[in-house]
Structure formats: C-alpha cells, structure tokens
Write a structure and sequence with these properties.
Structural class: alpha+beta
Number of domains: 2
Strand content: 15-25%
Strand order of the largest sheet: 1-5-6-4-3-2
Order of helices and strands: HHHEEEHEHEEHHHHEEEEHEHEHHHH
Distance between the termini: 32 Å
Number of helices: 15
Shape: globular
Number of strands: 12
Mean pLDDT: 85
Largest sheet: 6 strands, mixed
Length: 436
C-alpha cells in the first residue's frame, strides 16, 4: 500500500480559507465580452482549451455533409424526445451522414477513455429530426418509426427529409448526451431492422408495468442506455398508459428505478469489514468513492472549480451535495440526474458483491472539463472506479488522510459539505456507549 500521511484532528478540520481565482475584467464581467476579446487565444476564461473552438471545429467536419434537405445514414440507432412544450413534444431520430457501424455514436457505456474532442466530434455528426406530437400519440406514423429505431439492436439505415436544412450548434447538457444540428422532419424512411429480442418481448407484453419491464431488462444484461432509449419512446408499460417521455427525464427515471431496486437488495447483505477507497479520473473529473462498514446510506458531493461547466463565472470552488439515509429520500435530489446515475453504479457493485456499506462519492470537476457530456460520465466513472483494486483502511481517519493526499480540496471542506461524513464523525451511536 502506498504510504500516506496520517493527519491529526487539527489537519482534518481546520478553518477553510480559499483565495478566489481572478479574471481580468473585474467582478461584474460579461462572459460574451471575455470571449469576444479572447477569440480563443488567451484562455481568459481560465479553461485549458476554448470550448467554442472545440465545438466549431467539430461542426466544420460535418457541415458540408449535412448541407441538404435530406440526410441518408446509419442511425446508431439513436432517438431523442424533447421536453419543451410538454405534453406536446418533438420526437425523432438521430441520424449521421455516415453508413456502417455507427453504434459507438450512441452507446455511452463505451465512451470512457475518449477525450472531450472525440466525444464532441462523433456526437456533432448526429442530426436530430424533429416531429411534434402529443406524448400519448404513440401510434402516429413517424412516432411508430421512431420507436422502431429504439427497438433496433443494430444501426439502421434512415433517410430523413427536412422542411429546412439542419441548423444550430452542438447541444450540450449535463443530463443528456450531446447531439448536433436539428430540423423539422417532413418524412422519414427506415431500412430493414432487427429488433432487440429482450426489448421486443417487453414491448409486446402490454400487461407488464414499465418499472417491471425496466428491471427485467436490466436483470437480463441489457445496457442501461438502451433501456433508457426504449423507455423514452413509450415502449414499456400497460398499453393504455404508454407515452413518450422526454429523453432528459427518461434517463434519470431509469437510473432511479434500477438504483432503488438494487439498494433494497443491498440492505439484506452483511456489512463490509473495512473502509475502502475506489478512484477514477477521466475528462479532468476526479472521482473518489469511500465505502464504510455501515448500513446503507449514500451521498454524492460535487466540487466545481471556477471556469467549469456549472461554475463558469465563479471565483471560488462551489460544492453541492445530495444524500439519503437507510430509507432513501422523498424529494428529488438537488444535484439532479448525476445523483441517481452514481447511486445506480454504487448499489450495482454492492449487489454484485452481496455486501452492504455506507457510500460517499466525492467528485472534483477541474477546468479541463470544458463542457458537459451527460450523466453517463458520472455513472461510468463510478463503475470504472469499482473495476480497480481498492485501497483498504481500518479507520475513517486513515481513509480521510488518503483522500486528502489525492484531492486538491482540503478534507475539512469536504466534511463541512457532507451530511454523512459529519454524521459519522460527530454523531454518537449506541455502540459508542457500549464500548465505554
């Protein structure tokens, strides 16, 4: 085991003092002014690279290929359901101007290890076709074709004709995977499709509840992203209750359902015997997963550096957290979809090990994370951490000392922003009195 400094109580819990990062335009600067003055050459925003230029060069690679009223290509398969105007939403395919095996373009489980540039490159090639329907109108003509795409096990040839030429820049969101320009659909044609047998079976079972279909498919080894895709286009559920679900909502709903089910299984298993530490560093995100020999409890704590996605104009590191105790939580997590994605990964690992633990996940998002790529990044990073041999410690104090040696932010600030760590450190328990 790598030797780490064991910190004293004073080291662990000092008064926090952070000096802010400065920008040359003063306190109330306008982001657009900074970009106009910088032009991607001076990095005045503090990021390692200019996100505007990354998106620009990616779009230029495909611009000539999509400068038309029609696009003919192999959909990964990919679909998208919007949320603006709900219950009337825009649905349709994601189609690249490419033929062949394009499955990588919409399978985030295979993206870990890819750079921001690579992800932006292949996602910017996906043109989104838009067709407005009521969420309950799942049998409409284009709606049926969109759902067929989501059921396909392989890339499918799609010819899409648009009202106007696709326009717009790469759409970025921390919940969903990026996608490229969009346009209103006039019509779409799909080539031969081979349905995913497991998902097809759930689709034709009109008495099977959507939640049960999701859990059954996960249990059979279906990729989470594939389940999310099918869920969003009304593939599952009692026949009369089926409807389109905005992609953003569907991703979190599936993560939440699977994570909650796994959590309940984990509660029946014995506790782990030691403190464990798992790590994963990708896209300038640092993840540390601390597992403690305690009954189930879970927390995600995220620290966003200045000039990162969710702290673009800040001068100080901003920390957010959401947590739950043994019985879960009744309200939606403040952090959003990342909370449920990470919980799924943590409960999944414990379920596979048939053990129970208290879990705290710490995430440092550094300036190299210049743009959001979706909650898959959190889920797959936590999964990746569990693939590695963990560090093991006998005490929480040793564990916190190790964290202090790996993350830049002082451990005292992590503790101050973590409900679970504060509770474990300061709250007296029955066993404490029994050992006196």
């Amino acid at each position: 085991m790598e030797e780490t400094k064991v910190l004293s109580n004073t080291d662990l819990y000092p008064k926090q003092d952070y000096s802010p990062m400065q920008n040359p335009f003063g306190k109330n600067y306008d982001q657009g002014s900074v970009c106009a003055f910088c032009k991607g050459s001076k990095m005045l925003c503090g990021k390692e690279r200019c996100p505007i230029l990354v998106r620009f060069y990616a779009s230029m690679k495909t611009k000539k290929l999509i400068d038309s009223l029609t696009i003919d290509g192999s959909s990964p398969p990919g679909v998208f359901v919007g949320r603006i105007g709900y219950p009337y939403v825009s649905i349709g395919p994601l189609v690249p101007p490419l033929h062949g095996d394009t499955s990588l373009l919409d399978t985030p489980e295979h993206w870990l290890g890819k750079s921001i540039d690579e992800i932006v490159d292949f996602r910017s090639a996906l043109v989104r076709g838009k067709h407005r329907v009521n969420v309950t109108d799942i049998d409409e003509k284009i709606a049926e074709k969109t759902r067929s795409l989501a059921l396909s096990i392989n890339p499918a040839d799609v010819e899409a004709e648009f009202m106007k030429k696709p326009a717009g820049r790469l759409v970025l969101d921390d919940e969903v995977q990026p996608y490229g320009p969009s346009a209103e659909l006039k019509k779409m044609n799909i080539g031969s499709i081979k349905f995913d047998g497991k998902i097809e079976k759930a689709y034709y079972d009109t008495d099977l509840k959507a939640k049960d279909a999701v859990l059954e498919l996960y249990g059979k080894g279906a990729l989470v992203s594939r389940i999310q895709k099918a869920f969003s286009v009304g593939t599952f559920g009692i026949k009369k209750q089926r409807r389109f679900v905005p992609t953003r909502w569907g991703i979190t709903a599936v993560d939440s359902m699977i994570g909650r089910e796994l959590r309940e299984k984990v509660k029946n298993y014995p506790l782990i015997n030691e403190f464990r530490m798992y790590e994963s560093w990708e896209l300038d995100n640092r993840f540390i997963v601390l597992m403690m020999p305690l009954s189930w409890r879970y927390e995600l704590v995220e620290a966003w550096y200045p000039n990162t996605v969710w702290n673009p104009r800040g001068k100080k590191i901003v920390i957010f957290s959401s947590s739950e105790g043994y019985y879960g939580r009744k309200t939606y997590a403040e952090i959003g979809g990342c909370y449920y994605a990470a919980r799924l990964a943590a409960a999944e690992f414990l379920s596979q090990e048939r053990r129970q633990a208290g879990v705290v996940i710490l995430r440092e998002a550094h300036p190299g994370y210049i743009m959001p790529v979706g909650v898959w990044n959190v889920r797959e990073n936590v999964r990746n951490a569990f693939k590695k041999t963990p560090r093991k410690f006998e005490t929480l104090k040793e564990s916190l000392s190790y964290i202090s040696s790996k993350l830049d932010i002082k451990i005292s600030r992590w503790i101050n922003n973590s409900r679970i760590l504060k509770d474990v450190i300061y709250q007296k328990r029955i066993e404490d009195y029994e050992n006196q």
